[in-house]
Amino acid sequence: MKVRLMSHTPDPERAVALAARLCYSPVGVDELEEQMSREEMARLIRNVVRMGHHSTLEHAAFEFAVEGVSRTLTHQLVRHRLASYSQQSQRYVTQSGFNHVVPPTVRREPAAKAVFDEAMARAGAAYDELTRLGVPKEDARYVLPNATGTKIVISMNARALLHFFELRCCTRAQWEIRTLAYRMLKEVKEAAPILFEKAGPPCTSLGFCREGRMSCGRIKRLKRERLDFVVAPVTGRGGGSKGKE
Amino acid sequence: MKVRLMSHTPDPERAVALAARLCYSPVGVDELEEQMSREEMARLIRNVVRMGHHSTLEHAAFEFAVEGVSRTLTHQLVRHRLASYSQQSQRYVTQSGFNHVVPPTVRREPAAKAVFDEAMARAGAAYDELTRLGVPKEDARYVLPNATGTKIVISMNARALLHFFELRCCTRAQWEIRTLAYRMLKEVKEAAPILFEKAGPPCTSLGFCREGRMSCGRIKRLKRERLDFVVAPVTGRGGGSKGKE
Amino acid sequence: MKVRLMSHTPDPERAVALAARLCYSPVGVDELEEQMSREEMARLIRNVVRMGHHSTLEHAAFEFAVEGVSRTLTHQLVRHRLASYSQQSQRYVTQSGFNHVVPPTVRREPAAKAVFDEAMARAGAAYDELTRLGVPKEDARYVLPNATGTKIVISMNARALLHFFELRCCTRAQWEIRTLAYRMLKEVKEAAPILFEKAGPPCTSLGFCREGRMSCGRIKRLKRERLDFVVAPVTGRGGGSKGKE
Amino acid sequence: MKVRLMSHTPDPERAVALAARLCYSPVGVDELEEQMSREEMARLIRNVVRMGHHSTLEHAAFEFAVEGVSRTLTHQLVRHRLASYSQQSQRYVTQSGFNHVVPPTVRREPAAKAVFDEAMARAGAAYDELTRLGVPKEDARYVLPNATGTKIVISMNARALLHFFELRCCTRAQWEIRTLAYRMLKEVKEAAPILFEKAGPPCTSLGFCREGRMSCGRIKRLKRERLDFVVAPVTGRGGGSKGKE
Description:
245 residues, Gyrase A, domain 2
């Protein structure tokens, strides 16, 4: 998998902070720009993210080029509708000699790997045979597997990315799109470290988990630590807990 | 392919007409409802569609259940972002003994059909073997072909549908999603005949084509007929053409 | 304020439950419909709402007609982008003799009420005078106040509504749009009681508050009660708390 | 009115061209970047815009800061839902001594101007009086006129902008938002001259008008010129028109 941050709003955190400030300020944009220090910007952004006032985050846009991911992944990915996609077409680009993605559960089991490799080879041979028989590319591709590699350009703004990371960095997401999500997160953290400092699954970003009995349990460990902390005074000096949270 | 209109806004054309009327009327909704005849409604809806004032069309919602379509189709379908989808999961539902879709170009060519059938059988066998070896369903499915059948529930409002029909009823769309589009169009035409009376590709709905040299040529035939009509008086009785269009 | 649920997806909870079931079921829609009891439906919907798997909620659409609200309210309202609006036009509908909305803080203070009434009367007189002088309606309306009454048709699906209620039923929302939100909530609760049984501000629907020091404090009271419950066993019989949450 | 292009995707035309090329190319993004000349980029972008394959245009994002526009304008503006907004709040920012916008039809008519100025002064006095009486800002603003000046940050991608220009550069749009649209168009034409070279109302960008009898007539003049051109050969040397369009 190759993930590259192609471009983004120049100084994305400044864009967000200025927009956030404009909402609550009597002065104009020019003055705002002059007045705002980096510290002020950081404080504003953290507030906006923490309080869930996410509309200002939309002014920061990010564009990625992704290669070497499967069509399994992209079919999941493009369900995220608050984003823009340009994907390599199987209708117009020949898939002869196509690359493919091998799941880790297959890779680590030699018997499974042999079955998988054979399946890829046979699908490729069928595709070539069909095109040789005059079947158009757009129809020959019906024999291609979900594992087939593809390329896609993705644009999302910071708000959509935070939501994407909540869903797809979660252990409940499939490994391939989770890998993509973490790779994208790594890229945007470099471009906008404060904006994305708490980004990740809800257990990380929000401190809770809605998966119920499907939960991976990470939140329970986090909560238990936090609960111990809260509960401590009660079992301690006898002083009343104020439950300050 | 099985396409069923599961439910829709009751009296979708009344919903659209009332909303359209409210924008330009001093009276309230209750009075509007009493006053508006079926003829008035029809006139209003035709105006709204023709003039492209499409926001009022969004008040009419339609929900479809679709079965027996391929993942090739659904990967294209879900790129339409102004819609809602619920699709059968290949992560959680076993695909053993999966159905598949055969393209017409394959079906009518016995040699191609043989290659295709063999490819489907082998992909199915590989899937079963992988799951038998302990590979989880979500990973075993990487060997499944694009042809694999799937089920999906689709909700779109009338505005999104008109746009969907423009793109997907066009001969430039792939045959499978074009078939779906025409089947959906047939369903909504029964529920809202005036709303969708001109729905279809842009050559039908708008009288133009933007495909340039990729065009199927249908628009040229339509235009030639229309041009002949416009041009006729000039070469005819000598009476001046008023260029009424 | 007059709020009327004009129409909605017939049996909205069935629409949601069927879509949710389809995702995880090998059988088709027809069989699903036959098999599913009301109890099963209720269980499914509660799961979907609780776990935040909200995409299936989009298949239930609701349309409201709202009258007697101010342009202050509608300017806030139409910021919700996952919705459809048709609003009475001030460009085309005369505003002579316009209705207006009086805030409670003004109504209960006679001195303020006098100032307010005078302001409304003067704005109305200026509007009439401008149109008499030949200024078009669309420009004369520049003197009309935010308080001016308007009519609007709103369509939202159940997912968008849940989000709308979280933001606008909160005490931090302005009183007028909060009133609208609670009126809409009352309407949809009758049409889909299970879908909306926990709907409301985040303290109600999710059990948390992100407003920080701007919080109204309601969540603290709720949390304290819940914390007492959780903490109780620790200070109680000595039996270990399992922290079941 | 002050309109400033705050920031945009660096090299927006390259972003669009690369995405467009990826869809139809077997090679990866790195190679594409090396290979593509400015001429190739220009050709690609013109194709994409002309053929209406607008999804690739979404990768180019633009952010504007706008000041000195009225709330009349912003209430219209924020109806465009495929965009992001951050607007100065009348709930939290005092409007004492507020600026306002004067429509040209008022400005050029002294009697109207006098009525208008008086109305602004009275609304301002009422606002101040209400706040002095203890009415909160969010309620005192109910007396403020539509003309009240506001500030707003707008983000739109190139696709949304093309659509915005089609609706709001049209003579049927109100003068204030039309002025904003042309000012924004001027800004983006400097940043991306090829992308926006045909941007404007549909008569300019597409060569047609859907306004029917509400049309300003510009399209008729354009069409008549074009029709004369097409018709000429028929009445001319007798050479057959090929109707190449």
